[in-house]
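Q: Sequence in, structure out?
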Amino acid sequence: MRRFFKISTPVWCALGAVFTVLYCVYGKDALLSAAITFWTFFYHFAMRLAVGGIVNARREKCRVSARRFAPLKFESALYKRLRVRRWKDKMPTYAPESFDGKKLGLEGVIRTMCVSETVHEIIIIFSFLPLFAAIPFDSFWVFFITSLLAAFYDLLFVIMQRYNRPRLVKLANKKAR
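A: Exactly. Output:
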């Protein structure tokens, strides 16, 4: 997954630039649509890399015991309803080694889960920034739908972290006793 992001992000940028130039030369609407599409892809990929890099650089400041990471009363029932147990293992992982319990220990994995949740929460918010591009292009619904889909995708990762972490915390507490 990491390799895909690092290779495809500059590709989206290059394609955005190429189609922008082509649109400026030929003025065809299809070229503008392609340019907007590639620039939007570039934004979403580059933003994810930047947010992940910034939050991971500050990972030691992430307080695992922070109240915001504690499970809420309604979550357990919600996760059963969403059948998180069935799909959580099918989600891609950007850096699988950062969830390796043998290398990091239980506490390290729990910290990684908190950091990952924080990354995806920030990405959800930033997923809606392209809506500002809808103003000059008069394409609100296109930008809204793509932003909503991107935010929903990252919400799945937040749900997955919040589903798994209480089990690991319980196991860590059991081991500590």
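The helical segments are 2-26, 29-57, 75-82, 84-87, 101-126, 134-137, 140-176.
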